[in-house]
Amino acid sequence: MPRKVLPSVVLPRTALLVMLAGLLSGPAHAQWTDHRDPSVEAAPGIPLTEGRFNAALQYHTVWMLLEPVLEYSDFTSDELDAMDRGELPEQYSEQLAGNQEAIADLITATKLERCDFGTQYEKGIGALLPQLAVMRSSAKLLVNDARRLKGEDMDAVAERLAATIRLGEHASRSSIVIGSLVGVAIVDLARVETLKLLEANQLSAE
Questions:
Q1: What is the Cα–Cα distance from 69 to 148, expressed in whole angstroms?
Q2: H or E element in which residue 33 lies
Q3: Which residues, including other chains, have CB under 8 Å from residue 129's CB and lie 6 or more apart?
Q4: Which of 18, 98, 204, 205 is surrounded by the fewest CB atoms within 10 Å?
Q5: pTM of the full predicted structure?
Q6: pLDDT value at position 38?
Q7: Residue 51 has what pLDDT?
Q8: Helical ranges in the chain per DSSP H
C-alpha cells in the first residue's frame, strides 16, 4: 500500500506573526523588563531580565567562574598569614590577574540595590544561608586583589575595597543575626586594609 504524503501547509505571513505574538506574550516573555538600574549599562533596545537587577543571581554566576580562587583550604597557615601581610603566593596572584573580567562582574554586582537570595525564612532556625560563607570568601578575594594591585593602580585598589564594603552590606540583609555578623566581618576586612594604606600614605582620605 503506497504511503500517504501529507500536503505541505504554507502559513500566511499574518498567521506567522500572530503565532509569534502569542509566544512572546507567554510566560517566557514575562522575565523581560523595561526597568533600568543606573549601575547596569546596556545599549538602548537591549532586553534585560529581572534577574539582571538582583545582585544575588549575579553573585551566583560570578561564583561559578571564580570557584578556583575562592577556595582557601589549600593554603598553609603560613601562606594565609603572609596574605594578611599583603604577600600573595605567586600562583595565586597570577590566578587573580587572569580572572579580572569575573572580578569586574563581582564588583558590578555589589553596586546593585536589590540582593535577594530567596532565603526560606518560614523554616525558622532551619533556614539555610550558604551564601554567607561564599560572600566572606569573595570579600577576601577582593581585598587580596587590592593588595596585588597596590603600588600599580590605586584607583583599582580603592574600587575593590569599596566593593568589599558594599558586599558586606548585602550580607547584612539576611534579617538574621549571623548575616549581620558576617556583614560586619566583611566590612572590617576593608576597613583594616584601608587603614593600612592610609598609614602608609598609599591611599588618600578622598
A1: 14
A2: strand 32-33
A3: 117, 119, 174, 176, 178, 179
A4: 205
A5: 0.75
A6: 58
A7: 63
A8: 13-24, 55-66, 77-84, 90-97, 100-110, 131-149, 154-171, 177-199
In the block, residue with C-alpha cell 594565609: 80
Q: DSSP 3-state assignment of 48?
A: strand
- Which letter does DSSP use for residue 54 in this model? B
Contact in structure between 69 and 92 (CB atoms under 8 Å) = yes
Copy the grid coordinates of residue 170: 548585602
C-alpha distances in Å from residue 166, one per residue of 41, 110, 161, 191: 19, 6, 9, 12
Our CA dihedral for 169, 176, 70, 164, rounded to 10 degrees, sits at 10
| 8-state DSSP, 114 | B
d(CA 84, CA 162): 18
Measured distance CA(103)–CA(109) in Å, rounded: 10
What gap in Å lies between CA 69 and CA 121, rounded to an integer?
A: 30
pLDDT value for 85 = 85
Query: For residue 41, what is its C-alpha cell?
Result: 549599562
Could you tell me the mean pLDDT of each successive run of 10 residues in the chain, 206 residues long?
46 45 41 53 61 87 94 89 89 95 96 89 82 95 96 93 96 85 95 90 68
Give first-to-last CA distance, the chain, whole Å: 88
Q: What is the C-alpha separation between 179 and 164, in angstroms, rounded?
A: 15
Yes or no: say if 60 and 67 are a contact pair by the CB < 8 Å rule.
no
Specify the amino acid at residue 205: A
The single residue listed with the C-alpha cell 562582574 is 105
